[in-house]
Design brief:
By secondary structure, the chain is an all-alpha fold. The protein is about 60% helix and about 0% strand. The protein has eight helices and no strands. α6 packs antiparallel against α7.
Length: about 200
């Protein structure tokens, strides 16, 4: 079997797994709607496990389509690596296995220039801010809607999407527009003049 056929089989298997996981996730979400709050803990735990499995399946499909090897067992897509050196090592490993710079930039949410410096062995500069795409913003809102009663969910989402907590808060808790009160114009006080 050629490598391209093997990668295609991996991608197809990952796609079937994604479809099955999404179906189970929708069923659990429907059950949550009709379950009292004090009995939702097992369902929410299962939803979190499904989110992890979905992230792994999406990652496997991306790697199969790019011709890269499977992700290591310690890799967790929902918990981005905290050490920048590990991220650099993963980028260089994916590049050696044939992943293009454009796909690496999309996967790790970095610029093409940073990817170029990393794969050429130069010292990259770590980016401190991340802009979320429309798909990521929608995913943040969906996950917050499911786990909004969980303690520390905003910090967990901020860690997962590598943004600040204020960014997550502005996404899930938009400020309501308030009408500005017009200032009353008081008559100017004039000093009394002597006759």
């Amino acid at each position: 079997m050629s490598p391209s056929e093997s990668n295609q089989q991996r991608a197809d298997a990952a796609l079937r797994c994604i479809a099955a996981l999404y179906h189970e996730r929708q069923c659990i979400l429907r059950r949550c709607e009709h379950t009292p709050f004090h009995r939702r803990a097992p369902l929410l735990t299962r939803l979190y496990r499904l989110d992890e499995a979905l992230a792994h399946a999406h990652e496997e499909r991306r790697r199969a389509c790019a011709g890269a090897p499977p992700a290591p067992t310690y890799y967790n897509p929902l918990q981005p690596v905290s050490m920048w050196e590990e991220t650099v090592a993963a980028i260089r490993s994916d590049y050696r296995y044939g992943m293009s710079r454009l796909k690496l930039a999309e996967k790790y949410n970095l610029s093409i220039q940073q990817i170029r410096r990393i794969v050429q062995g130069q010292r990259p500069t770590r980016r401190t801010s991340t802009r979320l795409t429309a798909v990521q913003i929608q995913e943040v809102r969906q996950r917050y809607a499911v786990h909004q009663n969980q303690r520390g969910i905003i910090q967990e989402l901020a860690r997962a999407f590598q943004v600040s907590r204020s960014t997550i808060s502005s996404i899930v808790q938009p400020r309501q527009a308030t009408q500005c009160r017009k200032r009353r114009r008081c008559p100017k006080r004039t000093r009394g003049t002597s006759a």
